[in-house]
């Protein structure tokens, strides 16, 4: 890997294009280096993972609304159009709208892959745009694999170097540029076009983190889909010769100077050398449970404590629970956020998903976690749950913060230590570093786990034959022709979508 030194520049410094981060990213995207077998296999896994969580969310209101919007935008004249999850493969829409609808479906349950460093991200959000555009223009499966590998590489490299949340900027500001770069690889565009698309994609996808604060709304699922849609449109404009603000990161009125660390800031961004394979997807990790990633390990630990300490389940047995964890977990999904909504049994699913006190309480009581049942209003409002929930707090532990930010994958951790004070005076202490499904966890996810996740989540809405068909197509991804790529979707069983109430909008 090489390091790109990033800092702000006054206009009179005339920073050349070749010195700009957007150009360096464009060079990575334009590099025709092949994708290795291990990366290809992981791309397939994540395509299956995305489809699994999209299937599970087909009947949810935000997904139904996004799908209805997309279906109102028929195929544009420039290609074959793109498929929409849930509808038959022959029902095509314009690619930016397929990116929108499928992106919302993928993100709605917060149940796909993650990468956490200086910034956090869900790099699987790159995938809907790659498939939509690839279907539209007739790309091969191999092109899709290459585009996805680039998207993961760029988003993860940016997340390693540049914190957005520290300045209350939503993490999708790294996603717009990564999708634009991935589409550049997919479409074999030249550096100039990719450069312009990256600048436009970044410029149009910076927003505040209020979408993940307080009473979290349905926009949380839409935010990455919006970034994907903007990136597709940015690529279209750049291909037509339209230019973007530059230098977009480094300018004196640019992103660093006014949205991030200010005019005196600098960053070191790791990027692949010319000819170096794009392998960052192997640094990311997926979810066994439908919850914020920092909650994954805590669900596993709570499940373990449930099984090992039945005395914890006795009424009024627990006096207090203190979770010692990283700065991010404490201040974003813990009591350090100072969000009263995180303790509100009437809070939205999106809010409960970002409340480690709630998640730990339910997982401890139930010894399991379910993507629907664990968030049900009657589950959140159960009196014994509310009573214990209010006794669960978090505290930052400097050592767990250090491990959270460690660049050593063998040391990097997303868990912590829990201290449970019992009413009888005893204290139970346990800890966990990474989730069971993490590559270094107790049960790392492998292909069979991704397949089982898809089967489990898709079974309520897809016919068994459709599940088998999709899995067969997905596992042949690198070999798919442009015509076969249209099969990389799934249709719901008859009546499933028709039963969903929808509201009329403008389109």
UniProtKB/TrEMBL annotation:
Entry similarity comment: Belongs to the PrpD family.
Which superkingdom heads the taxonomic lineage of this protein's source? Bacteria
Task: State the Pfam families in the record.
Answer: MmgE_PrpD_C (PF19305), MmgE_PrpD_N (PF03972)
Q: Which SUPFAM superfamilies match?
A: 2-methylcitrate dehydratase PrpD (SSF103378)
Q: How does it assemble?
A: Monomer.
Q: Which reaction does it catalyse?
A: (2S,3S)-2-methylcitrate = 2-methyl-cis-aconitate + H2O
The record's EC number reads 4.2.1.79
Domain named MmgE/PrpD N-terminal is located at: 20-267
One MF annotation (Gene Ontology) recorded for this entry: 2-methylcitrate dehydratase activity
* InterPro entries per record: MmgE/PrpD_sf, MmgE/PrpD_sf_1, MmgE/PrpD_sf_2, MmgE_PrpD, MmgE_PrpD_C, MmgE_PrpD_N
**Keywords, alphabetical:** Lyase
Extract the signal peptide range.
none
| Main EC class the enzyme belongs to | lyase
Task: Kindly provide the name given to this protein in its UniProt entry.
Answer: 2-methylcitrate dehydratase
Domain MmgE/PrpD C-terminal residue range list:
289-477
């Amino acid at each position: 890997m090489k390091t790109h030194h990033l800092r702000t520049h006054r206009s009179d410094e005339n920073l050349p294009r070749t010195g700009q981060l957007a150009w360096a990213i464009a060079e990575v995207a334009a590099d025709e280096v092949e994708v290795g077998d291990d990366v290809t296999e992981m791309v397939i896994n994540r395509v299956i993972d995305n489809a699994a969580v999209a299937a599970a969310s087909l009947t949810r209101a935000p997904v139904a609304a996004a799908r209805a919007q997309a279906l109102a935008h028929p195929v544009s004249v420039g290609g074959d159009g793109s498929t929409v999850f849930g509808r038959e493969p022959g029902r095509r829409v314009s690619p930016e709208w397929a990116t929108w609808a499928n992106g919302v479906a993928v993100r709605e349950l917060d149940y796909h892959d993650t990468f956490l460093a200086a910034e956090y991200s869900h790099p699987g959000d790159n995938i809907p745009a790659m498939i939509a555009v690839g279907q539209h223009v007739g790309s091969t499966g191999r092109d899709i694999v290459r585009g996805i590998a680039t998207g993961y590489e760029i988003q993860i490299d940016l997340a390693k170097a540049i914190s957005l949340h520290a300045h209350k900027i939503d993490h999708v500001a790294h996603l717009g540029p990564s999708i634009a770069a991935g589409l550049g690889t997919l479409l074999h565009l030249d550096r100039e076009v990719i450069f312009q698309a990256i600048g436009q994609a970044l410029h149009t996808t910076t927003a505040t983190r209020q979408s993940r604060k307080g009473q979290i709304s349905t926009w949380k699922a839409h935010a990455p889909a919006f970034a994907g849609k903007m990136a597709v449109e940015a690529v279209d404009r750049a291909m037509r010769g339209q230019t973007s603000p530059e230098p977009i990161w480094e300018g004196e009125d640019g992103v660093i100077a006014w949205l991030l660390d200010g005019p005196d800031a600098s960053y070191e961004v790791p990027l692949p050398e010319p000819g170096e394979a794009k392998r960052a997807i192997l640094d990311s990790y997926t979810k066994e449970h439908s919850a914020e990633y920092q909650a994954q390990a805590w669900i596993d630990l709570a499940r373990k404590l449930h099984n090992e300490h039945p005395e914890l389940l006795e009424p009024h047995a627990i006096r207090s629970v203190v979770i010692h964890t990283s700065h991010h977990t404490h201040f974003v999904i813990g009591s350090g956020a100072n969000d009263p909504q995180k303790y509100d049994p009437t809070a939205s699913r999106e809010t409960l998903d970002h409340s480690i006190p709630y998640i730990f309480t339910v997982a401890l009581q139930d010894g399991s976690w379910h993507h629907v049942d664990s968030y049900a209003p009657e589950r959140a409002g159960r009196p014994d749950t509310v009573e214990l929930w209010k006794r669960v707090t978090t505290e930052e532990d400097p050592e767990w913060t250090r491990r959270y930010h460690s660049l050593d994958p063998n040391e990097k951790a997303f868990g912590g230590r829990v201290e449970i004070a019992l009413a009888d005076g005893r204290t139970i202490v346990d800890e966990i570093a990474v989730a069971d499904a993490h590559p270094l966890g107790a049960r790392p996810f492998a292909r069979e786990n991704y397949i089982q996740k898809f089967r489990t989540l898709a079974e309520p809405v897809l016919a068994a034959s459709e599940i088998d068909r999709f899995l067969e197509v997905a596992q042949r991804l690198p070999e798919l022709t442009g015509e076969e790529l249209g099969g990389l979707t799934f249709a719901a069983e008859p009546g499933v979508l028709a039963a969903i109430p929808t509201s009329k909008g403008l389109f």
